[in-house]
Design goal:
Shape: globular
Distance between the termini: 25 Å
Structural class: alpha/beta
Order of helices and strands: EHHEHHEEHEHEEEEHHEHE
CATH class: Alpha Beta
Radius of gyration: 17 Å
Number of domains: 1
Strand order of the largest sheet: 4-3-5-2-1-6-10-11-9
Helix content: 25-40%
CATH superfamily: Acetylglutamate kinase-like
CATH topology: Carbamate kinase
CATH architecture: 3-Layer(aba) Sandwich
Length: 237
């Protein structure tokens, strides 16, 4: 039996890039869609916030001379491309889904409307949330925290390529220590880069737990939803 009734999954743009690290890895997307389908069978409500760093990242663009606000809008449009690709992968295996965007583009997706998103989930549809908050200077991590609060999500699953939260980068440091559990305040004070401080603060204020897990390991999303010890759990004291 699932521990959480309504889940918000945060997917970074890096996840969509897969082994290529840029563009969209369609084979990986098929595997991800199957994972989501298996979790949906548990009868939980499922929303997904999508990043766009595999196509364009506003902060990186700003470093190269692109106006920051313009770069962020470009990044928001990149999240829409990823969201449509994910929707297509889900629909092809029989998982009904809807893409909702914070910037209106009715020809390709619905605008984000809180009550409509909740109704879609209640009807068994996966809701894919694109275009960030619709405002520059906010990360998709902050979008995930905001949407989780708006949609009354029980937990945020932050999908990464490492096994949880570490005291330092495990890719660069073999002696990095993994945390099984920590508080939102510890995450903020340690300035760990797994989630920005604005997003972590929002989760702390709204008492939304975060599970940071390795998406590359098959079945991790399902294990997290079932309440099994996977990744790192971040929650209020």
């Amino acid at each position: 039996m699932a521990k959480y009734k309504r889940v918000l999954l945060k997917l970074s743009g890096e996840v969509f890039g897969g082994r290529r690290k840029y563009g969209i890895d369609l084979e990986l997307l098929e595997v991800l869609a199957e994972e989501i389908k298996n979790v949906r069978k548990l009868g939980i409500d499922f929303a997904i916030v999508v990043g766009g760093g595999n196509i364009f990242r506003g902060v990186t663009g700003a470093d190269k001379g692109v106006d920051r606000a313009t770069g962020d809008y470009m990044g928001m449009l990149a999240t829409v491309i990823n969201s449509l690709a994910l929707q297509d992968a889900l629909e092809r295996i029989g998982v009904p889904s809807r893409v909702q965007t914070a910037i209106e583009m009715r020809a390709v997706a619905e605008p984000f409307i809180r009550r409509r998103a909740i109704r879609h989930m209640e009807k068994g549809r996966v809701v894919i949330l694109a275009a960030g908050t619709g405002n520059p200077y906010f990360s998709t991590d902050t979008t995930a925290a905001l949407r989780a609060a708006e949609l009354d999500a029980d937990v945020i699953l932050k999908a990464t390529k490492v096994g949880g939260v570490y005291d330092k980068d495990p890719v660069l440091h073999k002696d990095a220590k993994k945390f099984k559990q920590m508080t939102h305040m510890e995450l903020i004070q340690r300035r760990l880069k797994v989630m920005d401080s604005t997003a972590a603060s929002l989760c702390m204020e709204n008492r939304i737990p975060i599970i940071v897990l390795d998406l590359t390991k098959h079945g991790n999303i399902k294990k997290a939803v079932l309440g099994k010890g996977v990744g790192t759990l971040v929650k209020n004291e």
